Amino acid sequence: MNFQTRLGITTLVILGFLIFASRIFNTVFSDKQSFFNPQPNSKRTLLDPESTGLKKIVENKLKGQKGDYAVVVKQIGDKKEEHYSYQADKVIPAASLYKLFLLAAAFQEIEKGSLKEDQLISDSKDRLTQVLGAEEFGYENSGDTIEYPVSEILTRIATISDNYASVMLAEKIGWDKVQSQADKIGAKNTRIKAPISSTAGDITLFYEKLYSGEIVSKDASNKIIDLLSKSQLDSRIPNELPDSLKIAHKTGELAYLRHDAGIVFLENKPYIIVMMANNVPFEDDAEKLESELSKQIYDYFSSKN
After folding, report:
1. What is the pLDDT of residue 13?
2. How many structural domains comprise the chain?
3. Could you write out the three-class secondary structure of the chain?
4. Average per-residue pLDDT in the chain?
5. Are residues 262 and 274 in the same domain?
């Protein structure tokens, strides 16, 4: 092997080494740069200090509580930067929160023309009691036939969560159409079949769509908000809030279960609050906790500029 050949081989070896070393250096430097200066699409994200404030309020309130809780608080409107979720995807018996989707299904049928607001719907008290498994509160002295126009049924569902009225309307419309309303908005964990169940995340999604006028139509959404703002079941979200504050909400309750979910129309700072409590040993304690948590959330948003 002559001198020129050996020189060529040596040169190639040196070049190869330099290329290899350069790649190692770039890789190490790139990793360090990525670690110390994470890019926007990096999986390493910093906590939002404002969301941390909501987190502290909710988790401090739920600390040591017996039962299964799910909570979502989400600012809506022009300012959407604050939100916090606690077990938002936990599937829980929905109780009367399913009636939100029932209201949506009813207004869908009204807009289609297949249901009229002055249309009468009737059923026997005995059959309705059999369907529910118990006599509905407030019907102890009623006659055997229960009959209302659709407009009154909608009001009774929203304001006093009337179970007889709800069953009558759902059977008239069809339970499958109630499920379709949940499916339509993307409430993927909501089931309108026994056992009826949902999640705090799905209920939050409903209220987001309702606020933005996407539940059936803008007109229907506004009518549902108006109905829900007249609720007479005010022992939770509205209990410690100002009487003048507009709150559109729906409760749900069964044995060992207490829910409340809605929109609090705080001036310039509206927000959604969803609270679901299941397997609680004492329902009154759960209602008290939700009332206090609602007040703390209200105070938090009220105090911010």
Report:
1. 42
2. 2
3. CCHHHHHHHHHHHHHHHHHHHHHHHHHHHHHHHHHHCCCCCCCCCCCCHHHHHHHHHHHHHHCCCCCEEEEEEEECCCCCCCEEEECCCCCEECHHHHHHHHHHHHHHHHHHCCCCCCCEEEEEHHHHHHHHCCCCCCCCCCCCEEEEEHHHHHHHHHHHCCHHHHHHHHHHHCHHHHHHHHHHHCCCCCECCCCCEECHHHHHHHHHHHHCCCCCCHHHHHHHHHHHCCCCCCCCCCCCCCCCCCEEEEEEEECCEEEEEEEECCCCCCEEEEEEEECCCCHHHHHHHHHHHHHHHHHHHHCCC
4. 87
5. yes
Instruction: Give per-residue pLDDT as tens, 110-135.
Output: 999 999 999 999 999 999 999 999 99
| Count of positions (residues) in the chain | 305
Mark whether 90 and 111 lie in a shared domain.
Answer: yes
What is the predicted pLDDT for the residue at 305? Answer: 67
In this prediction, the residues of the chain whose per-residue pLDDT falls under 50 are 2-50
Q: What is the pLDDT of residues 51-71, one digit of tens each?
A: 689 999 999 999 999 999 999
Residue numbers of the domain that contains 41 = 1-46
Residue 194 is predicted with a pLDDT of 82
Domain containing 252 — which CATH number?
3.40.710.10
pTM: 0.83
